[in-house]
Amino acid sequence: MLVNLGNEYLKVIINTKGAEVTSIKNDQNIEYIWQADSNFWGRHAPILFPIVGRLKDDQYEYGGKKYSMGQHGFAREMEFSVTKRTNDAVTMQLKSNASTFEMYPFHFTLTISYLLSGSKLKAEISVINDGSNEMLFSVGAHPAFNVPLDNLSEKDYSEYYINVFPQRTYEQVPFKAPYIDLNSVSDIDLSKSLQLKHEIFYDDAKVIKTSDKKLICRLGNKNLDHGVEVEANKPEYAGLWSAKNAPFVCLEPWWGVADDINADGILAHKNGIKHLLSEQTFNTDYSIKIF
User: Fold this and answer.
1) Which residues of 105-142 are buried (b: 16+ CB within 10 A; e: fewer)?
2) What is the pTM of this model?
3) Which tens digit of pLDDT belongs to each residue from 175-224?
4) In the predicted model, is pLDDT for residue 152 greater than 80?
5) How far apart are CA 208 and CA 275, in angstroms?
6) Does residue 107 contact residue 208 with C-beta atoms inside 8 Å?
């Protein structure tokens, strides 16, 4: 089911399948969200849960048993229920069930609440451990934005740039696709703009590690006033990604990361995995601001 939200600045569409944002248009009818052309990448802005990225051999071990799970987890493929809805806000919820237990042996409630405020769409993410055992999980967001922005005159990918705030040097976690390589971490200077070129993403995503209270990734164009900002609350990693030669870029806040090339497959040992005690709640949020 598609849920429509709107105010005087933005019109937003969210699919209950995966609680996925599928469209954000401003008052000039400019579409900011990638429209899931399967020739490049057939998604818009999936929620990543209960893992971020790829597991080594698409499996893990917990409690002496092996489980299989695809890249970025299962939430993006599942139907969420709508628990609250107004003209400018909606709350969607996914609870553990027989299907999730086959892949993931934890009782949970995942809640995504979207709220429009001016030219900003805020996404509040809540994970509750409904079981009696400690819960292991990661969570993230994967929003993709049109480059060039739809309906605008500037059509050159390389005229667009990304700024990361705070502007400084970060640790870059390299990929040996589809896994990370923690033995080859290096510095990346993001104290100035990163000009977009398709070649940047030929070896997969650019991933940075961060401990900032807030991280902002801004997509802009030096010849235009329009762009987008993704702001995240205490993310542990951020990913910049596009499919090969595709007209979009993803600005992704993550609270977790893909398996390392040397991962032993034990879920509790997984890099970036979060631990949540029984009946406790993990809360975070990110927002998409249009300008």
Assistant:
1) bbbbebbbbbbbeebbbbbbbbbbbeeeeebbbbbbbb
2) 0.97
3) 988 999 999 999 999 999 999 999 999 989 999 999 999 999 999 998 88
4) no
5) 22
6) no
Which helix (H) or strand (E) is 99 found in, with range? Answer: helix 98-103
- pLDDT in the model for residue 177: 86
The pLDDT confidence band at residue 262, using thresholds 50, 70 and 90, is very high
Residue 13 has pLDDT above 90, yes or no: yes
Cα–Cα distance for residue pair 32/128, rounded to 1 Å: 31
Rounded mean pLDDT, 62-75: 98
14 within 8 A of 44, measured Cβ to Cβ: no
**153 pLDDT more than 70:** no
How would you classify residue 29: left for phi > 0, otherwise alpha for psi between -120 and 50, otherwise beta? left
* C-alpha to C-alpha distances, 34 to 6, 75, 85, 106, nearest whole angstrom: 19, 20, 25, 33
What tokens appear for 49 in the block? 């849960």
Point out which residues pair with 62 in neighbouring strands: 65
Q: Mapping DSSP to helix (H, G, I), strand (E, B) and coil, where does residue 139 land? A: strand
- Per-residue CA distances from 199 to 124, 174, 202 (Å): 33, 15, 5
Spatial distance between the Cα atoms of 33 and 43, rounded to a whole number of angstroms: 10
Buried b (16+ CB within 10 A) or exposed e, 189-217: ebeeebebebebbeebbbbbbbebeebbb
Which among 238, 234, 187 has a CA at the least distance from the CA of 211?
Answer: 234
- DSSP secondary structure string, 195-213? E--GGGGTTS-EEEE---S
Identify which of 54, 75, 68 has the alpha carbon closest to the alpha carbon of residue 125.
75
- Tokens standing for residue 291: 């300008």
